[in-house]
Design a protein that fits this description.
Layout (H helix, E strand, L loop, with lengths): L8 H31 L13 E2 L14 E7 L3 H11 L9 E7 L10 H9 L7 E5 L5 H7 L12 E6 L8 H12 L7 E3 L4 H4 L27 E4 L1 H7 L3
Parallel strand pairs: 1-4, 2-3, 2-5, 3-4
Antiparallel strand pairs: 5-7, 6-7
Length: 246
């Protein structure tokens, strides 16, 4: 014969109350930690070589400093691709303009864990052009959160330009010079929303059977067209602010 031992009713009620208070206290602690991460302003590194790991609220990020060029690097779990991107960034011609690199690392959508090797590669990067900072999202934000919430233009002018790039790109050493020329030439246009730093979508948008590149009139040096961009993009600040959710 088997016996099943049960506590008395009074002991059961006391045990249930203890479990309830423990679960409630744990919930309060988690809520407070979450509130601190979301509401606390991110710390900023002041030194040229300074680096800061911090959490950021899930809203467009405004930075404490203003630079001529802010490079936003979006990454998740591709440390080798990230390393190749860093090599190309070190050859970027800045022409004595101020610049900073902001590296944003997303988390796994299921486990909410961050890729440690990616964090290591990002933390070890020393950019010769200016400050380098590492930002780790508190939760998974995906492509939308990475692109939309990692740079809030300080104003509607082009005093600060952003180059937003994913980690599998290589940036030309003349990319910033090209960006400046484009913005100086076309920023006055109301329909100018930014400039893509990739050109392979010209083949995808082609209507010809040969899938050749989209081509404009031969007597024109610039061909402007609407397209979906990916990889690397320099948004026009005024349009980007309006595009973001305030």
């Amino acid at each position: 014969m088997q016996y099943i031992v049960k506590p008395c009713d009074c002991a059961v009620k006391q045990l249930q109350m203890k479990r309830f208070y423990f679960a409630f206290s744990l919930l309060i602690v988690v809520f407070l930690i979450r509130l601190i991460y979301v509401l606390s302003p991110p710390e900023r590194s002041k030194g040229k070589r300074g680096k800061t790991h911090h959490f950021s609220a899930r809203q467009p990020c405004s930075y404490n400093d203003t630079v001529d060029l802010r490079i936003i690097v979006l990454t998740y779990n591709r440390p080798k691709s990230l390393s190749r991107l860093f090599v190309s960034l070190n050859s970027l011609e800045l022409d004595n303009h101020s610049a900073a690199v902001e590296i944003w690392i997303d988390r796994n959508c299921k486990t909410n864990k961050v890729d440690e090797e990616t964090v290591k590669v990002a933390s070890q990067f020393r950019w010769r052009g200016g400050p380098t900072r590492v930002h780790v999202h508190p939760t998974h934000v995906g492509i939308y959160g990475q692109w939309i919430n990692t740079w809030r233009p300080p104003d509607d002018s082009i005093n600060e330009l952003a180059l937003i790039t994913e980690d599998d790109m290589s940036i030309s050493k003349y990319a910033y010079r090209w960006m400046l020329a484009v913005f100086r030439a076309y920023n006055h246009r109301k329909d100018f929303a930014g400039a893509s730093l990739t050109s392979y979508q010209m083949f995808i948008l082609s209507l010809s059977r040969a899938r050749g590149p989209v081509a404009g009139p031969k007597n024109h040096t610039v061909f402007m067209y609407k397209c979906l961009w990916w990889g690397a993009f320099a948004p026009q600040p005024m349009h980007w602010k309006r595009f973001q959710v305030n």
